Amino acid sequence: QVQLGESGGGSVQAGGSLRLSCAASGSISSIADMGWYRQAPGKQRELVATISNGGSTNYADSVKGRFTISRNNAKNTVYLQMNYLKPEDTAVYYCNAVRVVGVRLTYWGQGTRVTVSS
Fold first, then answer.
1. Taking CA 5 as the corner, what is the angle to CA 100 and CA 70, rounded to the nearest 5 degrees?
2. CB distance 58 to 67 below 8 Å
3. Over the stretch 45-84, which tens digit does the pLDDT of each residue have?
4. Which of 53, 79, 85, 87 has the fewest Cβ atoms nearer than 10 Å?
């Protein structure tokens, strides 16, 4: 099992910044991709950004140029730097990890709320 602990959510005005962190613990060997997803009220969970253990990144079009995902493999931690936040970024943000042990096993954090006011 892998446990994911998120921190860094909160409330901010539009144009502001927040940094989310997610630390993985437990059976952390063979963790491949890590990332962030979000779910706004009444909407489905959607991808925000992912990063491979080699550092390759992928972003949703809606956050490109504003958000940056990074990873510290030595600390088993993934970060999401969010700049120029918009009210539409308001959501619960979930950390995600994929562990490859013959099959792909997906793990989720408990979520951290981000609220952006106009």
1. 65
2. no
3. 999 999 999 999 999 999 999 999 999 989 999 999 999 9
4. 87
